[in-house]
């Protein structure tokens, strides 16, 4: 029995590479994706200080004033007026009481605070008295890493700059008064008058030691999104293989089942149901790994688990809906929706106030922004229903409804148009061997 030589029917790599259609499409797609990734990821972080706009910072004066030289003065109010009069578009100074400022820090409403204590005017007056050796007046800068480490750093820098500028201005006034009095002072006292106020930096809203300096919420959210995204991808591949609409390969072993007579809509429901059940397991695994094994600081564990399940399931349903609409291209579209566009617009690493307007627009509907706000509220702010957490729940519900309705509408539209996933010849047989090579 004679056999045709192997090279007569087998293709060589060089023959495949000579065909432009073999490499042109993947090269073009990868090049465009690489370009977009570079622009989107780097475009929002290269110069956040220049893009900074209206970062909310609390401004507090508890100074009750004092009578100096027969005149009642309030240096704290003067400092507040000087700071607010300096129209800095980068910072939104919000004047409030000390109690309101502490509440704003605890409710994730401000990135920091500048606090002028009670007795500030009296301390300055005592410092300017001849021959006095009083304690140096202080202004306290309160940080809020729970709102974001970079945003808290921006707020702290702005508050410290404002405090030092106020100290320099007050020092110039005190030095002028001392010179007019012609009193003899030691050189050290003269230098103290030039910069009389000490600036103290303290945490305004404390975090645990295992909170990643305010980044654990972002990475936990990223885990939930990846669990939903990757889980949906695996479920979609497995279901398509089980129904005979995709090849199944394990190493060198390949198989393909006969295509099952099932509609697109029913396939979408199968994948969605499996992903929702899978979210119950993946969320528990993520919490077990991060909290139990790694010791991440976390409270309200039942609420955190419920939120994690719903968030991961919503992402998975969104992926299935996009895949239903776009087919094989859906994986790329889903990656852009849930990863590429979501990460730079989440506001979790770089605050939204320091991002260009394009990313602020994306943050209004991109899921990671909403999910990270909800996780941060649960982990850092005692799960208070002050805005972020209810909005996160609302966006999860809205995303779930849009995914289910959109996926079913698209699937039924394709079904009614008779657009089968596989053509008739493919349903009957799959050519192999020499016929496939030919």
Automatic annotation (TrEMBL):
Superkingdom of origin: Bacteria
Domain (DUF3533) ranges: 30-390
Chief location category: membrane
Protein name: DUF3533 domain-containing protein
Locations listed in the record: Cell membrane
Organism name: Cellulomonas edaphi
Entry keyword set: Cell membrane, Membrane, Transmembrane, Transmembrane helix
Alphabetical list of InterPro entries matching this protein: DUF3533, T7SS_ABC-Transporter
Membrane topology listed for this record: Multi-pass membrane protein
Transmembrane domains' residue ranges: 23-46, 217-246, 267-291, 303-325, 332-352, 392-414
Family the UniProt entry places it in: Belongs to the ABC-2 integral membrane protein family.
């Amino acid at each position: 029995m004679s056999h045709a030589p192997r090279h007569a029917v087998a293709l060589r790599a060089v023959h495949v590479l000579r065909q432009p259609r073999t490499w042109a499409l993947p090269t073009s797609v990868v090049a465009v994706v690489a370009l977009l990734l570079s622009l989107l990821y780097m475009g929002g972080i290269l110069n956040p200080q220049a893009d900074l706009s209206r970062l909310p910072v609390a401004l507090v004066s508890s100074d009750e004033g004092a009578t100096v030289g027969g005149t009642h003065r309030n240096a704290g109010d003067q400092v507040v007026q000087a700071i607010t009069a300096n129209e800095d578009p980068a910072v939104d100074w919000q004047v409030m009481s000390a109690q309101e400022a502490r509440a704003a820090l605890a409710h994730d409403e401000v990135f920091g605070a500048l606090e002028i204590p009670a007795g500030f005017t009296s301390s300055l007056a005592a410092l300017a008295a001849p021959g006095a050796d009083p304690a140096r007046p202080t202004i306290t800068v309160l940080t809020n890493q729970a709102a974001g480490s970079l945003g808290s750093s921006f707020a702290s820098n702005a508050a410290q700059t404002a405090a030092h500028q106020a100290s320099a201005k007050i020092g110039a006034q005190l030095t002028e008064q001392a010179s007019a009095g012609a009193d003899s002072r030691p050189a050290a006292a003269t230098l103290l008058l030039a910069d009389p106020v000490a600036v103290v930096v303290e945490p305004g809203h404390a975090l645990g030691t295992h909170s990643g300096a305010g980044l654990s919420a972002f990475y936990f959210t990223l885990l939930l999104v990846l669990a939903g995204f990757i889980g949906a991808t695996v479920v979609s591949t497995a279901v398509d293989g089980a129904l005979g609409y995709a090849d199944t390969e394990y190493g060198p072993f390949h198989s393909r089942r006969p295509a099952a007579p099932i509609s697109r809509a029913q396939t979408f429901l199968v994948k969605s149901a499996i992903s929702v059940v899978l979210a119950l397991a993946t969320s528990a695994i993520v919490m077990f790994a991060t909290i139990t094994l790694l010791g991440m600081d976390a409270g309200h564990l039942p609420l955190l688990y419920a939120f994690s399940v719903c968030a991961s399931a919503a992402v998975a349903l969104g992926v299935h809906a996009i895949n239903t609409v776009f087919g094989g291209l859906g994986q790329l579209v889903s990656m852009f929706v849930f990863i590429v566009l979501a990460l730079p617009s989440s506001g979790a690493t770089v605050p939204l106030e320091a991002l260009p307007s394009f990313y602020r627009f994306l943050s209004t509907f991109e899921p990671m922004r909403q999910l990270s706000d909800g996780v941060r509220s649960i982990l850092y702010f005692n799960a208070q229903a002050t805005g972020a957490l209810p909005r996160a729940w609302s966006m999860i519900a809205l995303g779930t409804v849009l995914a289910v309705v959109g996926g079913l509408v698209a699937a039924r539209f394709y079904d009614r148009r008779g657009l089968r996933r596989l053509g008739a010849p493919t349903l009957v047989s799959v050519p192999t061997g020499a016929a496939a090579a030919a």
